[in-house]
């Protein structure tokens, strides 16, 4: 299992990374990026994207719909130059602010504002959701505050629920074009009719997996510009090489939020099976989430509390050490009852990049990254027995996993180098910012 971190891979040596055009796209305008929250530890792919776009010359303003809720950030956030404007998150605590800015906008836009407001009220009544009016008021506040001076010429939202709702309303109010990136939960828990409307109104749509793109095209019902662009990771930071301690005990690692779609109940059940079979192992879990107390209580009930260590949320600089000191990475993803599911979890890409064998499930787009028996191991979701057998096989394989982890690294280099991925996004924004 031990790999030298300096080991050079042929695919990496041969790869040439793209460079920005000499002419930056920002000469014709600024990209306004609407985010649900900024910064967020679980959305490092967004901060990395912003940083790389800035390095390519894209001027950006960030509009966050809520304040940060964590006490630390990833290193990429500290390098970002884009100014951040925080929007009022809720109506009642910020009623006067929202009403004042929207009334000012109404006076300025006149009939246009009235038509947009009437449309928002009609949609809120149809959907029986007051959140629609909150999104409209946030869009009005943003438009009055930042979008009327001609600086921002294109809006882009991350996630197709709340941020794209605000972007759509802001577009209706100001006439600015918008686009959005759809990810995972936001796609599969959205009402199809609302999602269809957003797709049809957007100048273009980006999503992070082919699985998502196929679904969005079916929802759209007509030809629309939907681009599949993987998030990618920093291959220099996640360089190849692991050095776990001698086994047994085997060290397992899982990184993910404690939410139903991550399948931690299934994983703990699989670990109980392995413990009953006498396998000597530990599991480090990194992350937090809404089901933290529930999962930790389940761990105690299963008698695994001396084997499973919950590390909480950690920055990348600490997480990478766990990747390097583990024997295998496991993520038991599944489709939650409300339809929520993963796309391609970035943590799987990170684990494969450093050379850690991965075990996951055939859910959503995970097979786009992990080819069973070639770049990792896949089992059907919701089956602790099969998950347990897969973990045991990977940990105790007589022939090791050297060939598999090298194939996994080559896969990541070919498809998930974030600089190459962002280059495609850059071209979309370059064209959008250059258009009137």
UniProtKB/TrEMBL annotation:
<dbReference type="Pfam" id="PF13439">
    <property type="entry name" value="Glyco_transf_4"/>
</dbReference>
<protein>
    <submittedName>
        <fullName>Glycosyltransferase involved in cell wall bisynthesis</fullName>
    </submittedName>
</protein>
<feature type="region of interest" description="Disordered">
    <location>
        <begin position="1"/>
        <end position="24"/>
    </location>
</feature>
<keyword id="KW-0808">Transferase</keyword>
<dbReference type="InterPro" id="IPR001296">
    <property type="entry name" value="Glyco_trans_1"/>
</dbReference>
<feature type="domain" description="Glycosyl transferase family 1">
    <location>
        <begin position="248"/>
        <end position="407"/>
    </location>
</feature>
<dbReference type="InterPro" id="IPR028098">
    <property type="entry name" value="Glyco_trans_4-like_N"/>
</dbReference>
<dbReference type="Pfam" id="PF00534">
    <property type="entry name" value="Glycos_transf_1"/>
</dbReference>
<dbReference type="GO" id="GO:0016757">
    <property type="term" value="F:glycosyltransferase activity"/>
</dbReference>
<feature type="domain" description="Glycosyltransferase subfamily 4-like N-terminal">
    <location>
        <begin position="134"/>
        <end position="236"/>
    </location>
</feature>
<feature type="compositionally biased region" description="Low complexity">
    <location>
        <begin position="1"/>
        <end position="13"/>
    </location>
</feature>
């Amino acid at each position: 299992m031990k790999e030298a971190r300096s080991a050079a891979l042929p695919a990496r040596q041969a790869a040439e990374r793209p460079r920005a055009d000499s002419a930056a796209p920002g000469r014709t305008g600024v990209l306004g990026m609407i985010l649900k929250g900024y910064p967020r530890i679980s959305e490092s792919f967004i901060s990395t994207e912003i940083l790389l776009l800035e390095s390519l010359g894209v001027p950006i303003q960030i509009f966050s719909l809520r304040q940060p809720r964590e006490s630390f950030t990833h290193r990429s956030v500290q390098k970002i130059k884009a100014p951040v404007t925080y929007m009022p998150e809720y109506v009642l605590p910020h009623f006067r602010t929202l009403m004042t800015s929207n009334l000012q906008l109404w006076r300025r836009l006149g009939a246009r504002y009235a038509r947009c407001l009437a449309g928002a009220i009609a949609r809120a009544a149809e959907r029986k959701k007051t959140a629609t009016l909150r999104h409209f008021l946030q869009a009005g506040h943003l438009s009055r505050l930042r979008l009327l001076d001609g600086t921002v010429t294109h809006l882009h939202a991350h996630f197709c629920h709340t941020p794209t709702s605000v972007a759509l309303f802001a577009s209706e109010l100001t006439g600015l074009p918008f686009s959005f990136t759809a990810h995972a939960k936001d796609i599969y828990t959205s009402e199809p009719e609302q999602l269809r409307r957003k797709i049809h109104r957007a100048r273009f749509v980006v999503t992070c997996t082919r699985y998502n793109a196929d679904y969005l095209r079916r929802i759209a019902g007509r030809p629309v510009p939907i681009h599949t662009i993987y998030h990618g990771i920093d291959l220099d930071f996640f360089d190849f090489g692991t050095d776990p301690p001698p086994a047994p005990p085997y060290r397992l690692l899982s990184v993910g939020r404690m939410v139903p779609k991550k399948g931690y109940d299934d994983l703990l059940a699989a670990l109980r099976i392995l413990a009953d079979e006498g396998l000597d192992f530990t599991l480090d879990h990194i992350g937090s989430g809404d089901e933290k107390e529930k999962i930790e209580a389940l761990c105690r009930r299963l008698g695994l509390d001396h084997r499973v260590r919950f590390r909480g949320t950690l920055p990348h600089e600490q997480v990478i050490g766990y990747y390097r000191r583990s024997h295998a990475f496991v993520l038991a993803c599944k489709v939650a009852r409300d339809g929520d599911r993963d796309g391609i979890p970035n943590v799987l890409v990170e684990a494969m990049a450093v050379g850690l064998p991965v075990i996951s499930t055939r859910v959503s787009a995970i097979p786009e990254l992990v080819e069973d028996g070639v770049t990792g191991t896949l089992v059907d979701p919701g089956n602790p027995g099969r998950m347990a057998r897969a973990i045991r096989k990977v940990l105790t394989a007589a022939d090791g996993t050297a060939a598999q982890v090298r194939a996994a690294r080559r896969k990541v280099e070919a498809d998930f180098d974030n600089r190459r991925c962002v280059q495609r996004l850059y071209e979309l924004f370059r064209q959008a910012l250059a258009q009137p």
